[in-house]
Specification:
Length: 148
Amino acid sequence: MVPYGNARMESGKVSCQHGEEECEGNRWEQCAIAHYPDASDYFPFYYCMESEGDRMLHNVKKCASDANLDYGILSTCYNGAESEELQKKAAAMTPSDHQYVPWVLINGVKSPSDGDNILEEVCSAYTGEAPKACESLEKSKGWKRCYA
C-alpha cells in the first residue's frame, strides 16, 4: 500500500492531483504504514481516514484512536523530516507511466494485467512455500512449480 495516488514530484516538492489536503492525508497514511508496517495494524487507520472523505484531516486523532495507533508517534512523523523522506520513497515507488490509480506492484514491478490476474501473477512470482490459494490455482492450471 503506497498512499500517493496521482501525485507528482516537481522540483523536489510533491504536488497532488486533488490539492494540498490530499498530500497531507497521504503523509498521515504514509506515517502510519511506516510505524505500523503490519497491514492488520495500519489498515484500520487508512480505512478510517479514507472513509472520512473531505473531513479526513479533521479526524486524524479519531482514526488513530479507533485503530489503536499512537497519535503522538504519527504526529511526530508527520511534522518532521521523516514525512518528507516517506514522500520521496513513495514517489520513487510510483511507476512513471501510470495513468490511473490504484495500480498494482508485484516485487516492485507494475502488474502487466493491472491486477486483473493478481493471483496468477503473485503465485508466479512467489518463491516461498506455496500458499493454499497458489496450490489451488496450480491444480486448476495444471502447473508444476517447485517452491524453495
